[in-house]
Amino acid sequence: MKRKEPIHWGQILIFIILLILSLPIILGYLWLIISTFSKVTYGLVPVDKSGNFGGFTLSNWTFLKEPDIWWASWNTFLLAMFMTVGVVMISSLAGYALSRIKFSGRKEFLSLTLVLHAFPSVTLLIAIYFVLKFFSGIPILDLFMGYNTIGGVIFVSLAMQLPLGVWLMKGFFDNVSWDVERAALIDGCSRLRTFWSVMFPQVRPGIAALSIFSFMTGWSSFIIPYTFLSGGAGHSVISTYLNTLMQSDTVSINYNVLAAVGLFQLIPILIFYFFNQNYLMKIFSGGSHGGV
Amino acid sequence: MLPAAVLVVLYFFLPVILTIGISFTDMSSVTGFSNWKFNGISNYVKIFLHPDSLRIFTSTMFYVACTLCFFNVGMGLLVSVLAYHLPKKVGGFFKSLWLLPRITPAVVYVLMWTMIAADAPYGIINQHIFAPLGLPTSNLIPNNAMFFCILVNGYIGASFGMIIFSSAIESISKDIMTSSLVDGAGFFNRVRYIIIPQLRWPLLFVTTYQTLSLLTSFESIMLLTDGNFQTEVWALWSYHKALNNYYGNFQYGFGAALSGVLVVVGVVFAIIYLKFFKFGELVKEPLIDEM
């Protein structure tokens, strides 16, 4: 039944209630954007040196001239990129296997990844620290998997993302009709060929969603890089770079520059978000499919 | 399949075992990595006897309970129910808005909150509400630290519940909704007698799932207050003890014991999931090999 309901006062009331509830989010974003482009910000009002309204400037963006931020961005990009590729490849293969192939240990592996999916891994940081220290002791591995290398951070973040990815991809594969796959197999397709040319195209939305999500997680991750990178040139990501700026005791903190760095980090995320909202909604609720 | 297995073993199973293992040793930066010895359960005894344990335990419980009730479940439900009653476009706008905290990088997000709470003339609340009213202004975080921790995490957490509840509400059959209107049910009656009963499973799911993630997450608390002002929660305590503190004495063993407690809690919760959320159906055997 499609019926145009007239907007009545009840809906306006609901709208206002929702608006009030959402205020902190709106204000936070407003502050970020306003203060990025102003010298000093009193509350939400941009002011100049003498306290009058005005003082718009682009000078907060001069941090872009420093090589450090580009190092950090490059590292962040590497982290997000490798994480995305790794998570998508590994979890689609594993998801396919778990969804369609019977092998021993399947049930155990599934229940274990489910437990891990539900089990936020930050509690394991101490032990992972030891694993990374161990890698640092091995000659060649220490260059790209050890403590204080971006590679080590990539591997850890990748692994942390896997349980979610595997479950999500399994869910998407589960939804593909059996008949199509059977037909392909009966026609003489090999298992791998079936995966590549029959199944893969059908789960493309899932893969798109997972890649976007992984990229965003990698781009904004903080705690893992913060713990396993010592900071300094070449050993920081944007999050930790911004955190160092926030915590620095030596120079008085210029919040407008902080806002600019924050916005700099936020822009790619927002762009991804606005173009891919539907995919992302799928992910955030994706874990709930079938009661997981 | 194999790479997934290797990575999961390397960064999950091994760490779980290592965490438990280390928690039975006296390893710290004093003993170094080679000079340690097993000391049985004394780390766990130490947790029991530690003067801070009770305080941190209570604040953890308080933090988890409040965030869960008021935001992850309460606010999530409220927003999704309210958004459902708005025209689709407007409701969708609010849902996207509420997702923003979740996708915003934690550091940036906490920065926003810091500025909302900061002292006049910079802070938003102080400058635009307190100052015009002539109230004394100060940085709001030290005195209401726990409140702000709950707010910060709550606004992230609410979106999870919101999405799940929204899709559950959408899936309630339109016939039931319409007939309730025909029968003359008002907004509150409809929520109370139609929507809430239909959401029993999603409610339970969100509650259990979020309890665990709240217990073990400490990222935004660390960024906001770093555990000062009575906001040290269990997971953050463990992190501070083992990997990050001002004294430079990293007590790996004690920290691992602290997270060991969390691991046990996590396993208990995991068992609850498996029992309640029809796990058997999810792992049903693949059909294709039975051809």
Number of strands of chain B: 0
What level of helicity do the residues of chain A show? 55-70%
Shape verdict of chain A: globular
**The CATH topology of the largest domain in chain B, please?**
MetI-like fold
Brief descriptors of the model:
heterodimer; A: 292 residues; mainly alpha; MetI-like fold; two-stranded antiparallel ribbon; 69% helix; B: 291 residues; 2 domains; 14 helices; 71% helix; 0% strand; globular; disordered C terminus
In short:
By secondary structure, chain A is an all-alpha fold.
Lay out the secondary structure.
The complex is a heterodimer of chains A (292) and B (291).
Chain A lengths: L8 H13 L1 H14 L3 E3 L2 E3 L19 H34 L5 H13 L6 H12 L4 H5 L4 H25 L3 H9 L4 H12 L1 H17 L2 H6 L9 H10 L7 H32 L6
Antiparallel strand pairs in A: 1-2
Helix pairs in contact in A: 2-13, 3-7, 3-10, 4-7, 7-10, 8-9, 10-13, 12-13
Chain B lengths: L1 H21 L19 H8 L3 H32 L3 H16 L2 H12 L6 H7 L14 H27 L2 H9 L4 H12 L1 H17 L2 H6 L9 H10 L8 H25 L2 H4 L9
Helix pairs in contact in B: 1-13, 2-13, 3-4, 3-7, 3-10, 4-7, 7-10, 10-13, 12-13
Kindly describe this structure:
The complex is a heterodimer of chains A (292) and B (291). Chain A has a single domain, classed as Orthogonal Bundle (MetI-like fold), CATH 1.10.3720.10. The longest helix of chain A has 34 residues. The radius of gyration of chain A is 24 Å and the shape is globular. Helix content of chain A is 69%, strand content 2%. Chain A is mostly helical and 292 residues long. In chain A, strands 1-2 form a two-stranded antiparallel ribbon. In chain A, helix 10 packs antiparallel against helix 13. The C terminus of chain A is likely disordered. Chain A is built from 13 helices and two strands. Chain B is mainly alpha-helical. Chain B folds into two domains: 77 residues, no CATH class; 172 residues, MetI-like (MetI-like fold). Chain B has 14 helices and no strands. In chain B, helix 3 packs antiparallel against helix 4 and helix 3 packs antiparallel against helix 10. The longest helix of chain B is centred in the first third of the chain and has 32 residues. Chain B is globular, with a radius of gyration of 23 Å. In chain B, 46% of the residues are buried. Classes of the chains: A mainly alpha (292), B mainly alpha (291). At the A-B interface, helix 1, helix 2, helix 3, helix 4 and helix 5 of A face helix 1, helix 3, helix 4, helix 5 and helix 6 of B.
